[in-house]
Amino acid sequence: MNFTDKLIIAVDFDGTIVEDAYPKIGKPKLFAFETLQRLKKDGHRLILWTYRSGVRLEEAVEFCKSNGLEFYAVNKSFPEERFDYSKSRKIHADIFIDDRNIGGFIGWGEIYQMLTNPKYHPNNINKKKGFFSFFQNKSPSS
Question: What is the pLDDT of residue 2?
Fold first, then answer.
């Protein structure tokens, strides 16, 4: 894969798209809607992935729609998926954008730059090798 590949991007709502004011809806974060609209226009699939459910989830979805943003799916991997209590609620995504990441929320400008710069694109970053790779392919010392 290369940096032109399209990503599935899961995005949190409270504290990420809007300032955290749960159960209310906070003010939009600077450049949140502009960045997400641009990522969608660039061909990436956006999934709203939030703690919200029921009426609170509907409010968040409508708030996003009123700001010109509709998601590919909401709290699921694809629109047709049905919730099943016998399976994990974890969804399939290439990237998760959330204010609870290690290091906190870096800002929408930085996120867009990382996703559009080939050097930092998730599909081009060399993955760190796991602990056990240290023991593989080692020749015995003399």
Answer: 43
